[in-house]
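Human: I'm a chemist; would you kindly supply sequence and structure tokens for a protein?

Assistant:
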Amino acid sequence: MKGMFPVVREAVERLIDPATIRWIGFSQFESDECGSLIEWLQVAPLAQPLCTVVGALVNVSDFAFGRWGECDP
């Protein structure tokens, strides 16, 4: 969820540097699953979303297009 991003980011920062994250995975395209995807992509510049082929074709490519281009299914 987008509103929880600051709290989750702080927790992750206690374990690893978020900039080193390479993959951001989620099971479905809903706000509780990937609502903060854009925020994570901003703090993890090398990261790529990881989802199903259908998720990439139907939602994720359009949602994250402004950040890094199209999602490769």
Notes: Residues 27 and 51 are 6 Å apart (CA to CA).
